Amino acid sequence: MTAMTSKLHLLPLLALVVAATLFGCTPPGVTGGGVLSPRVTKINTGAAAARLGLTVMHTSRTSATLRGGCNSVVMYSDPAGEVYVNGRSMPDSGGILAENGTLLVPERLVRRIGAVLRPGPGNTRLTQNPVQRPSRPQRVQPRPVKRIGRVVLDPGHGGKDPGATSSLGYYEKDLVLGVSKMVAAELTARGVEVIMTRTDDRFIELEDRPAVANRTRADLFVSIHADAAANRSAAGFTTYISRNPSRKSLAAANAIVRRMCVSCSPNRGVKNADYRVLVHSHSPAVLVELGFLSNRAEARKLNTSSYQRTVARAVALGIYDALR
C-alpha cells in the first residue's frame, strides 16, 4: 500500500515532463516541428570592428561604439537591440547578446553594417556584391595667395576720442573701426598683408599711427574717418592727401575714388590737407572720409551693415588697384 502510494505521487511529475516535451521545451537548434533552425554565428565586438575596418572606442555590458575614418557605429544589446550607423538607425538590427562583458554580434548584421559604411581608407566592404557608389569629387586645394603688398589701415579716433557724433547718436570711432575690419578682410582675401593701428576701442596718439607704417615699411597707409559739418545738408565722401604728396599717394587716392564712385555716395573729390597722419607717414598716405555723420540720411545709411560692406569693399578694391 505504501509503494503504490509513492507511485501515485510520481504520476503528476511524469505528466509535467511529458507535456513540456510535447508542447514547448525543445532542444536548442530544433524548431517546434522538429526541424533544425539555421545556426546563427556571432562574433565579439573586437572581431566585428576588425572586419569593418573600425576601432572599438567604447564597450560595456550593454553597448559598444566603433569608429574609424568618417564612420561611427553604435550598438546596443537585446532587448533594445539597436544599431546606429553614422547617426541613423538600422532596421531589424536585433540579435546582439551581452556575454562576459562584451557584445556578440550576428555575422550577417556585421555584413549589413559594412554595406552602408561611408567609403574611406581602411573600411572593409563585406557584401559579395557591393553597391557601386558614385565617386566624390576631389577637393582641390586652393593655391597659396601671392602677397602683393603691405598696407597699414588706421581706424580714426578711439578710446577717449569718440570723433564725430552722428545725428543718430552713434560715434565715428565705432563706425570706422567696423568698416576698417571689413576692408582688412577684403584685402587679406586678395593677398594683401594688412596691419591695423587699432583693432579695439583704444586711444592712439596721431603721430603713433603713421609710425606703424614707417616701422613696418608699408606700401600704403590709409586712415579711415567719417566727416561732420555745421551744414547738415553736406553729404558725400572725400579723399585727402598731403599738400606735397608723392606720386604714389595721388595714384592711391584716385584709385580709391574710382572704386567708391561706382557704388557709394557723391564724390567730393581728392583734396590736399596737412593732417598729421599724412605728413608724418614715410609711406604713400591717404585719408578717406566715408560720409557726413551730420547729415541724417547719410548717417542712417552708414549705420546699416549692407552699406558698410559696400563702402568697405570699394575702399579695399581701390587699395588693391593701387598696389597692383
Task: Give a summary of the structure in a few sentences.
This protein is α/β, with parallel strands linked by helices.
Strand order of the largest sheet: 10-9-11-14-12-13
Count of distinct strands: 14
Structural class: alpha/beta
CATH architecture of the largest domain: 3-Layer(aba) Sandwich
**Strand proportion:** 15-25%
Radius of gyration: 39 Å
Order of helices and strands: HEHEEEEEEEHEHEHEEHEHEHH
**What is the 3D shape?**
elongated
Helix content range of the residues, please? 25-40%
What does this structure look like?
- With 324 residues, the protein is an alpha/beta fold.
- It folds into 2 domains: 42-116, Copper Amine Oxidase, Chain A, domain 1; 149-323, Zn-dependent exopeptidases (Aminopeptidase), CATH 3.40.630.
- Helices cover 35% and strands 23% of the residues.
- It has 9 helices and 14 strands.
- The strands form 3 sheets. A 6-stranded mixed β-sheet has the order 10-9-11-14-12-13, with helices on both faces.
- Helix 4 crosses helix 9 (305-323) and helix 6 packs antiparallel against helix 9 (305-323).
